[in-house]
Amino acid sequence: MATRVAAATLLPVVLSLLLLPRTDSSSDDYSAFVYAGCSQGRYAASTQYASGVDSVLTSVANSAPYAPYANFTAPSDSSLVGLYQCRSDLPASVCTGCVRSAISRLSSLCSWSAGGAVQLRACFVRYGNDSFLGKQDTAVLFKKCGGTPGDAGGVAMRDSALGALVAAAAPEGGGYRAGGSGAVQAMSQCVGDLDAKACSDCVSAATRQLKAGCGYATAGEVYLGKCYARFWANGSGGFSSSAGRHGFGLVHAIATGFFASLVYVSLVI
């Protein structure tokens, strides 16, 4: 009989790293930390739930070299599931390294938590027993605007690039979209448990957040519960160290649903 554990609704802790690398894919540190969340519910060692968590995360690590997305159910408890999502435009070697780094982060940040999630630059890993699989979630978990200040022309190009993400046909097998307009590039990624419409709706919500919240910034990114979107101006340097230190604005929004009632801690190193 499976060990019953309090539902793993993800609450504190969440950490946000201000010093993000450049946004363009050519220079990303793919395993750089973005945020994490851990449930308040806990489980004990040497229980069926502990065994289930180990099984799910082992399956996640073993699958990463072969596919950008997969989900798994614990053999001992059908309510305990885990998934991972890599940026599906990147090589399998990047996905593998990122997922293994994410699992290591979960082990240190969410030790013995009934549910946990971590977002790194190129991948997302989550496990828990709170029935999140296949459910839409557009709660804003992390948002940042940065780069050097731009102008109205840059804003117009940004809006056009983000609009291209929304207009793109639902991608096959991965949920990755890319768009551009003039000097501005944009990309988005959905978690693979969303269907095509839910992915499009999530991307639309993410782009609205960036348009409404980033003003004349020349780079921005927003992470929702089941997708994220980014934009950057070519040659703008994305999120430089100076932008992080001098506060081009880390913006948080706390919403119901995934990661409800979060407490954010920002780190500057």
Average pLDDT confidence is: 81
- The unreliable regions are 12-26, 237-269
CATH superfamily of the largest domain: Gnk2 domain, C-X8-C-X2-C motif
CATH topology of the largest domain: Killer Toxin P4, Chain A
Number of domains: 2
- What would you call the structural class? alpha+beta
Helix content: 25-40%
Write down the Rg: 18 Å
Beta content comes to 25-35%
CATH architecture of the largest domain: 2-Layer Sandwich
Instruction: Name the strands of the widest sheet in spatial order.
Output: 1-3-6-7-5-4
How many alpha or pi helices?
5
Signal peptide: 1-25
Subcellular location: Cell junction, Plasmodesma; Cell membrane
Keywords: Cell junction, Cell membrane, Disulfide bond, Host-virus interaction, Membrane, Repeat, Signal, Transmembrane, Transmembrane helix, Transport
Domain Gnk2-homologous: 31-132, 136-236
Secondary structure: elements and pairs:
Blueprint: E1 10-11, E2 14-17, E3 33-39, H1 48-63, E4 69-74, E5 77-86, H2 92-109, E6 116-120, E7 123-128, E8 140-146, H3 152-167, E9 176-181, E10 184-190, H4 196-213, E11 219-224, E12 227-233, H5 241-245, E13 250-251, E14 264-267
Parallel strand pairs: 2-14
Antiparallel strand pairs: 1-3, 3-6, 4-5, 5-7, 6-7, 8-11, 8-13, 9-10, 10-12, 11-12
Helix pairs in contact: 1-2, 3-4
Membrane topology: Single-pass type I membrane protein
InterPro entries: Cell2Cell_Antifungal (IPR051378), GNK2 (IPR002902), GNK2_sf (IPR038408)
Keywords: Cell junction, Cell membrane, Disulfide bond, Host-virus interaction, Membrane, Repeat, Signal, Transmembrane, Transmembrane helix, Transport
